[in-house]
Amino acid sequence: MFLPKYTQQGCGTLIRALKKVYSQEEIKEYLNIAQSSIVYVVDTFQSSYYYIDNFGEENETTTEIKYKSGEAKMTLFGIQVVLPEPKLEDGETVTSEHFLKDFKESRFYFELTQNF
User: Fold this and answer.
1) Which among 29, 75, 82, 86 could bridge 98 via Cys, Cβ 3.0 to 4.6 Å?
2) Which of 2-19 are b and which e, b meaning 16 or more Cβ less than 10 Å from the residue's Cβ?
3) Is the pTM of the predicted complex or chain greater than 0.90?
4) Which 3 state secondary structure label does DSSP give 70?
5) What is the C-alpha to C-alpha distance for residues 41 and 5, in angstroms, rounded to an integer?
6) CB under 8 Å to 58, separation ≥6 — which residues?
7) Could you give the count of Cα atoms lying within 13 Å of 79 in the half-sphere of its Cβ?
8) Counting Cβ atoms within 10 Å, is residue 63 exposed (0-12), middle (13-18) or buried (19+)?
């Protein structure tokens, strides 16, 4: 199965295949299992990036955004997949809720749950 790549663009074939193999109730159940199976580990180091506002202008400002990210996995339709790293705000530490929110906002999730 191509589930490890479910977050990539063009996963329409995967979604159509899953909808053909599983009923709506089975899909709901697999998605519930996936959500409850999220396991994550917070990085032991702080990450950061710089945000530049008004680039190239006289009033240009640079802000450093610091956060603690991590890695998460879940079992999706019986296959363990790595979840994409969520975008975090300044001072945030990643939680399972960040990963869950991003999963529920993914095109994959939307397309699978459409028409429920």
Assistant:
1) 86
2) ebeebbeeebeebbeebe
3) no
4) strand
5) 21
6) none
7) 10
8) exposed
Residue at token pair 């991003």? 102
Measuring CA to CA, which residue among 110, 108, 116, 115 is closest to residue 7? 108
Question: What span, in angstroms and rounded, lies between the C-alpha atoms of 85 and 75?
Answer: 16
Could you tell me if 82 and 73 are in contact, meaning their C-beta atoms sit under 8 angstroms apart? yes
Helix axes 96-104, 24-36, angle to 10 degrees: 160
User: b/e per residue, 24-51, with b = 16+ CB within 10 A?
Assistant: eeebeebbeebbeebebeeeeeeeeeee
CB-CB contact of 72 with 82 (8 Å): yes
Task: Give the chain's mean pLDDT.
Answer: 91
Do 116 and 29 touch, CB atoms closer than 8 A? no
> Which of 23, 37, 36, 3 minimizes the C-alpha distance to 116?
23
Q: What is the pLDDT of residue 14?
A: 85
